[in-house]
Amino acid sequence: MLILIAGLILFFGIHLIRVVAPGLRAAQIAANERRWKGIYALISLAGLGLIIWGWIAYRGEAPELYEPPTWGRHLAMLLVWAGFVLVGAANAPAGRIKYFVKHPMLTGVFLWAVAHLATNGDLASVLLFGGFAAYTLIDRLAVIPRGDPAPAIVSTRSDLVALLVGTVLYGVFAFLLHGLLFGVSPY
Fold first, then answer.
1. Which of 168, 166, 83, 66 is nearest to 118 (CA)?
2. What's the pTM?
């Protein structure tokens, strides 16, 4: 469990620097942006590696905190698909999705985390997915005072691309990769 917690602290710690120490982040970028991005990437990857290792190691012995509802699996399928579409929209030129959601990456990750909380009640999963859900909420609340304007719509075609790419990636992941990587097939 300690490996999982250490990974969560590293991963979210570096991701929340902008929230808790914006001056430090700005100073690092001003001093040497490439160095800062390298440090950020290394700490993120180390944290992600520890999260994966810790979750795999602890999941088998983690106590069950709650029994997931029987309908949780169906809800998860819908939420994860929407999450894939939103992450696709986050990485495309602004369309209506990005305009209305404003921060589609955070929203997509939040939906993914909530979906997995609806299907997993063990402590390892609650730490992992609950950590991601909490992070996305904290980060989303932190951007409100900045007053980020909604992005100008560049192309509504971006929405179609996000929908198509998100749906295809969801299908590949749900029907093939999830079972191979995690031993559980959603379908």
1. 66
2. 0.90
